[in-house]
Specification:
The chain has helices spanning 2-14, 120-123; strands at residues 21-27, 30-44, 56-58, 61-73, 76-87, 94-105, 108-115, 147-157, 160-167, 176-184, 189-201, 207-221, 224-235, 238-251, 254-265, 268-281, 286-295, 303-311. The protein is mainly beta. The chain has a single domain (2-311), classed as Porin, CATH 2.40.160.10. It has 2 helices and 18 strands. It is a multi-pass membrane protein. Its main location: membrane. This is Outer membrane protein, putative porin. Residues 14-296 form the Porin domain.
Length: 312
């Protein structure tokens, strides 16, 4: 158990998605936490160039996160989460990232709303960068995060985590379901398997059948982490495959990370790139980072991205 807790702590320090939160209310078995980030960042790439725009593009954003939970009785509780992202500039956009509520029971949590599919706990193995990455994981829309109209079950049984979800789309013939499991061994080795199936919109007038299988593995030792995601599926009777390989190393206040993404659909490469980045954490609340993506597909250009981020 001590090794498992140590592994979790190392992963939290290596990855850059941890959201700090302050407890603003804790009374009568009810708790509310508020957190978020202010992130000033920019991207430089020929992809940004148009008749009116240069290769430099500001991508600054802010996020606000609210998390609440309450105890109903000894075996039943309730929870809710809301997270919004706000873009910079006079034409800024406001996008809801998460909006869901549910019940926590002795056999697991049941929730509904805009939340991650059951596959995301597997794709998070390799989606670790602050700048790029996560390009090859989603062969189907049912595999993605932040899905609306999403019914989710999540249960933890010692070292085993099980999730299942059903997405009841607003659009006709666009529903999907998925199931996944993840097991954590005490020596720092985690692995998981997932499956999603359903229908999704295509470029034509009708929806198409889409299925995907995910296999994920991750190993953490001392300050080093390496992981892999391997995925295969079928979309409208066309074979699709992908894999992501990730590595991270923590050295004092520095974190160095890299990811390789590859995906092909019907024997045509759709993703093929290498992304590397360095993060310097001045303290637990403030960091600066820079990353570079090397594109291997001819019609895609390399990208440089950098930023400053304050978590609260």
């Amino acid at each position: 158990m001590k090794k498992l807790l140590l592994s979790t702590a190392i992963l939290s320090s290596l990855t850059s998605t941890t959201l700090f939160a302050a407890t603003v209310y804790d009374q009568d078995n009810t708790q509310l936490k508020v957190g978020g980030r202010a992130e000033a960042r920019a991207n430089i790439s020929d992809n940004n160039e148009t008749t009116d725009n240069s290769s430099f593009k500001d991508k600054s954003r802010a996020r606000i996160n609210l998390k609440g939970k309450t105890k109903i009785n000894e075996s039943l509780g309730a929870f809710g989460t809301y997270e919004v992202e706000i873009g910079s500039g006079k034409d800024n956009t406001v996008n809801t990232r998460y909006l869901f509520a549910g019940l926590s029971t002795t056999v697991g949590n049941f929730s509904y709303g805009q939340q991650d599919s059951a596959q995301v706990m597997l794709t998070d193995y390799t989606d670790i960068l602050a700048t790029f990455g996560g390009d090859a994981a989603d062969l189907t829309t049912g595999n993605k995060d932040k899905r609306e109209n999403n019914f989710l079950y999540s249960g933890e049984f010692d070292a085993l985590t099980v999730q299942a979800n059903y997405i009841a789309s607003n659009e006709k013939d666009d529903d999907s379901f998925g199931i996944s499991g993840m097991y954590a061994l005490p020596m720092g080795l985690d692995f998981g398997l997932g499956y999603t199936s359903g229908q999704q919109a295509s470029t034509g007038l009708n929806s198409v059948d889409a299925d995907q299988i995910n296999l994920a593995i991750r190993y953490t030792v001392n300050a080093f982490m390496v992981s892999g995601l391997f995925t295969t599926g079928e979309i409208d009777n066309k074979d699709a495959n992908g894999y992501e390989l990730a590595a991270a190393y923590k050295l004092d206040q520095w974190v160095f990370q890299g990811v390789y993404n590859f995906q092909d659909v019907d024997s045509t490469d759709t993703e093929n790139n290498v992304a590397i980045e360095a993060i310097y954490k001045l303290n637990k609340s403030f960091r600066t980072y820079a990353g570079y993506k090397f594109e291997q597909i001819d019609n895609k250009d390399d990208q440089l991205q950098f930023g400053l981020r304050y978590d609260f």
